[in-house]
Amino acid sequence: MIQIERVTLYHVTMKLKQPFTTSLGTISDREFIIVEVKDQTGLTGWGEVSAFSSPWYTEETIETCYHMLRAFFIPNVLTRTFTHPSDIPDSLYQFKGNRMAKAGIEAAVWDIYAKRENKSLRDVLGGTKDRIPSGVVAGLGPVDDMLKQIQQFVDQGYQRVKVKIKPGQDIGLLKKIRESFPHLPLMADANSAYELKDISKLKQLDDIRLLMIEQPLAADDIVDHRHLQKHLKTPICLDESICSLDDARKAVELGSCQIINVKPSRVGGLTEALKIHTFSKEHQIPLWCGGMVETGISRAQNVALASLPQFTIPGDISASSKYWEQDIIYPEIKVENGFIEVPRSPGMGVEVDYQALRSFSDKIDVFTKHDFVM
Fold first, then answer.
1. Which of 165, 103, 268 is nearest to 174 (CA)?
2. 129, 164, 166, 322: which one is catalytic?
3. Which CATH code of 3.40.50.720, 3.30.70.100, 3.20.20.120, 3.10.310.40 fits the domain covering 123-351?
4. What is the pTM of this model?
5. Which of 6, 34, 87, 339 fits a disulfide with 10 by CB distance 3.0 to 4.6 angstroms?
């Protein structure tokens, strides 16, 4: 049995090496909640809440996640016992939504569980790969700057490049990139920047030979994506529209997408991500693991998830040095010859750098069961 005795929340702010721009805005600094849990045996597990400071990606923010953890999820977890990390979503089911907050605390319990089993997170999740191919994301900017950045990515060995697009910076931009890199595995991410009325423009993507177009239409839509996919040869990949196994099932049954981007934080945790993996394997839907401009904690856990067999496309898991001068883990995530080695030591396979974590933290809150049990 797993009994969580203590939960510590670290409110962290880290400065990106350079601003990162999408169709929804620009990020220069990144807030996180790092979740540390300790069980009755003294083992420690780590998770990360990857919501953003404002609700531009989902309705959750760091502030709302902090409230939900403190007021509801932590009291629930501290006053129950669990046999397996998959019990966590069941215990939190009564609380609607708030998937990123749930994912952060569930990930920490997965880390503890793997350490208890003396196995790597890869092994307890069912992963089969010793290394995974690494992809990378190019944020929006001046065309010449983007071409230089993509050349750097190619030189660093990244096996797939994703380009953020938006109206006014889309077809022309992608054509210039394709002209400069005729054989590069290339995809575009719209972050819901288009509407179904843009179908004639989006059909021009078919001439650019993209791996996929990610989330072209509204974040809460599946039906319009179905209509769009009927008119496109370019595969549609859904991201924001897929928040659960049920969402994935509906999208596949409707024909709304051909590929799914799985982000554990977006779907509520690793348990739900595993369910989507099982479904996608049964229905031969290719998967890849997305990123949220995360620290090495989520990055290491995403590497373990991406080692599962249906993750057949290079994901957004890049090196720690892509975003950070210093990460909060050691060893940091590295890309060598286009691949990331999957950690094999017990748990998530990397250690948290307490000194770095505390240096980036402006608030640390500790909770025990005595805070909630009279």
1. 165
2. 164
3. 3.20.20.120
4. 0.96
5. 34
